[in-house]
Request: fold
Amino acid sequence: MAYGLYSHIQANRRRSVVLLIGLFLLVYLMTFAGALVAEVVFGGDARLGFLINAALRRTIYSLPWVTIGTLVWILIAYKFHQSMIDAITGGQEVTRQENPRLYNLLENLCISRGITMPKLKVMESDALNAFATGLNEKQYSVTVTTGLLARLDDPEVEAVLGHELTHIRNGDVRLLIIAVIIAGVISFFAELVFRALFQGGFNWRGSRRGGDSDRGKGGAMAAILIALALIAIAWLLSIVIRFALSRQREFLADAGSVELTKNPDAMISALRKIENRGELEGSTSAVMEMCVDNPRSGFADLFATHPSIDTRVEALVKFAGGHDPGPIALPEPAPVDESETTEPASGGPFGQAGTPQSDAPSPAPKPFLPPEPPIRLGNDQPASHVPGPWDQKR
Reply:
């Protein structure tokens, strides 16, 4: 099974590199679409062939600048992406002293496989979810919600941590973040093109410059339609590629968690508890794509970023030998009364005798008596002995 798992990981990495190259090609496609729009908006009407040739010349001339601009965008995201994610989610780094339970579970998994331990962060949220981020070993971090820690037991939390560590070990996190960054570049280019198209206005004068006697007229509308079609295709393909980078990796991450923990049932029960409870309020779609489960979906299954929980559980039952308990109903957490958060000094919620304390007032304390002397056999008291407090009949 391990050989098959690692073989799939290597094949998946190769496919991911191809998809990543495809994303750069989409950026160049967007550049051509923008050049085509610019020819119409700023150059005026002309024959379609003339507009396309002019747009190609502009695209070739701008390719180095577009590549440099995309790389600069990636470098900025490389440096500040974690800060932006923390600003969106509110994740706070924790230490062993602050959360020994979670820290020890993650540390033990890393030690067992010789993995560099990532930073550990906790996000205040009732949702049940977790995600990993980072582009290199110095940046990798795993974020867990407080809702997940409250609802999952230790083996289940360990399975979720193993899932995220597998994403890091397989390079999924790095590739997904890069894909999201480049998809952001495509969205940025699309916005620029639409602004130039609808706010710049059209120049239908058909002005002729020297050497442009073959411009002609009548191709502007066709050029605009072609540019809009290219923008739509590039945008849709960037979304599909992002989904492909995350969907196929979830099965491998589940299998990797089982390999780390040797406990398929814990991974299955964790998924069942997380099912339909993972929506992080206020988080962007890019953050949700990195989570254990993303309940958001679009048109049927095509635009779902994660396989369904049922499909993932079915795979674990079939290939890892786990047992599916079915959907799990979780009780709502009991509300906390802030006025009762301070425990009594007499031993906590259960008194020194281990019985629940009542709200009734405690009886008045008995008067202090010195310790009773040890019992002595016989009657060896002297006649002049004066009865003390313990010699009284009680």
Notes: The radius of gyration is 34 Å. The first strand starts at residue 92 and ends at 93.
